[in-house]
Amino acid sequence: MKNIKEQILELKKDKNAVILAHYYQEAAIQEIADYVGDSLGLSQEAEKTDADIILFAGVHFMAETAKILNPTKKVILPDLNAGCSLASSCPPDLFKKFIDLHPNHLVITYVNCSAEIKAMSDIVCTSSNAIKIVESVPIDKPIIFAPDKNLGNYINQKTGRNMLLWDGSCVVHEAFSLDKLIALYQKNPDAKIIAHPESETHILETASYIGSTAGMIDFVKTDSNSKYIVATEAGILHKMQQEVPNKILIPAPSKEDTTCACSECGFMKMNTLQKVYDCLLNESPKISIPENIRIKALKPIQRMLEISK
């Protein structure tokens, strides 16, 4: 009897499917994926795939992005309830009113948002390319940045801009405890703290390196230090440890007193190996986007991919 991983790989081959997985997925899913990456890398892979079926092991907005880029392909998500606290913090009706109040502003949205929000945007960005995207806009052009206020604050500090920020945030990246982080660092003074720019300012101020998930992995690969405290979703540690097997990686501590002392995204962890198998077998749940929304959302994503080349 074949195990579930072998069955998934066989199904994938039979159906000409590709499995794209985010770094925050459980290790078992990352191991059977064709590509594991951050939001920018996943968008780029989704754009160029020649598979008939894209199974997106991530959260809903990521699968939507793949469908926006691939209208003729079947895009499936292991669990339709795998949402995103950041995306949910920006309801389309309220964001439309916000935009209407500032009609002369260019709208840049972080990829962690719904298709409806992307459709209201001029350019989409990821944490990998956010600064580059913002700097591509003339300095005298006012910008609305949504939905992540922490990433927006970080970009403002790095670029000297004064973007108008939507008041949204990611519960995972706001879950780090500064007191616990300082205590952990005191026990490991030889460690470097690395953080995702979605984290709160007081966490970022402690970091030796701030960057996207892919950027953090590249940093620990090239940096000469041997120990790191990692302030992002703990799923990244699987791939990161594979890249640097001889280095020590410590997850940054969460404010919550849970069984896992690190910060995990409950939505990302909704996907399981069994759900991946069922999803591929049944080619469901399927992602669908109204064509008028898809066409509007495609333009800002294409602008991002063009600027990111």
Description:
42% of the residues lie in helices and 15% in strands. The protein has 309 residues and is an alpha/beta fold. It has a four-stranded parallel sheet with strand order 2-1-3-4, with helices on both faces. The chain is globular.
- By helix and strand content, what is the structural category? alpha/beta
For this structure, the quaternary state is single chain
Helix content: 40-55%
The residue-averaged pLDDT reads: 89
Helix and strand sequence: HEHEHEHEHHEHEHEHEHEHEHEHEHH
Dominant shape: globular
Largest sheet: 4 strands, parallel
CA radius of gyration is 19 Å
> Major sheet: order of its strands?
2-1-3-4
Ends apart, CA distance between termini:
45 Å
Unreliable residue runs: none
Beta-strand proportion: 5-15%
Tell me the number of helical segments per DSSP (H or I, 4 or more residues long). 15
Set out the fold topology:
Layout: H1 4-14, E1 17-22, H2 27-32, E2 35-37, H3 39-48, E3 53-57, H4 60-69, E4 74-76, H5 85-88, H6 92-100, E5 106-110, H7 115-119, E6 123-125, H8 130-135, E7 143-146, H9 149-159, E8 164-165, H10 178-187, E9 192-195, H11 201-204, E10 209-210, H12 213-222, E11 227-231, H13 236-243, E12 248-251, H14 273-282, H15 291-307
Parallel strand pairs: 1-2, 1-3, 3-4, 5-6, 5-7, 7-8, 9-10, 9-11, 11-12
Helix pairs in contact: 1-14, 3-4, 4-15, 12-13
